[in-house]
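Troubleshooting: if your tokenizer reports a length mismatch, compare against these two reference records.
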Amino acid sequence: MTKLLAGVRVLDLARMLAGPYGSMLLADMGAEVIKVEEPGGGDPMRAMGPPFLPDGESAYFLAINRNKKSVAIDLSAADGR
């Protein structure tokens, strides 16, 4: 199956609902989506629930961020930028 957006790279800086959902759709269509999170805590959606998996992970966070790569970068620091 050919992915429509294969070869497209997307930088996802969004948090909460609409932005992560939009980048999830792009990832589902084959784009390489790189999600940027804050070091130390990451996206606040990681704590959103219920439902939570038995190990405490947010089922919503895992579902909305499927097919994405994730990095933690401090964009307030010169090295992060």
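Reference record two:
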Amino acid sequence: MPAADRNGSLGVIGKATSLLDELAGNGELSAAGLSERLGEPRTTVYRLIRALEQAELVEPADRAGRYRLGLKLFRLGGVVVARFDERQAALPHMEALHATTGETVFLCIRRGLEAVCIERLEGSRAVSLALTLGGALPLHAGAAPRVLLAEHERTAWQEYYEAAAGLPPLAPPLPSRAEELFDELETVRRRGFAISDEDVTVGIAAIGAPIRNHRGAVTAALSISGVRPAILGANRARMTGLVVDAAAAVSASLGFTPAVAGSRA
């Protein structure tokens, strides 16, 4: 796209965002009122309103000639709020897991082809730099990412495999055969947790478990990471149990019950 087109598109987005901000702050406004507040010609404001109405972001208010925010923003906002709910629900259990194990604890959500870390409590034994707060890993790499990918159907795994294969080389690279990844994801689904055994960082292992919402859908993943002997050594079963139990406790606080999982299955 030429620079002029990009700038024009960004300008329109900026004006639309300002219009939404005005409606958010005032409840409802007329086109004339928006024109005055935005410092834009009324014809420009009408064009913005029409475009935002088509996108269901703005709708006519009960009073004729006035506009308010559309219900689609409520739905979109609900998705964002849900993520904050997950973090709020998870944090006490993350802190307890951190206090018990002394390892780095992560909370991740999916964004496209990646798992993004939205909370991280630093371990006392090893510093993992592979996944920082706000950072991301591809969905096939690491315990928490594979938990998020395993939630989906096999067709979605194939779509991910094909899409990720077109990305720049990643560490670790995708398996040479899709079935290798699919077998691992089947294992994750069957046992209810994922293991990362030095496949992201040499000497570092991780265990991840799913967090489910009240509908039973996996919306986040909880994991711990540390030096391999501490995670997958003699205490492997204990560490796994602690992570799975912590994730289950978070899920319960979000309204999930095992009966929901059974009905989804």
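Descriptive notes for reference record two:
- Strands lie at 28-30, 58-60, 66-69, 104-111, 114-121, 136-138, 194-197, 204-212, 218-227.
- The longest helix spans residues 71-101.
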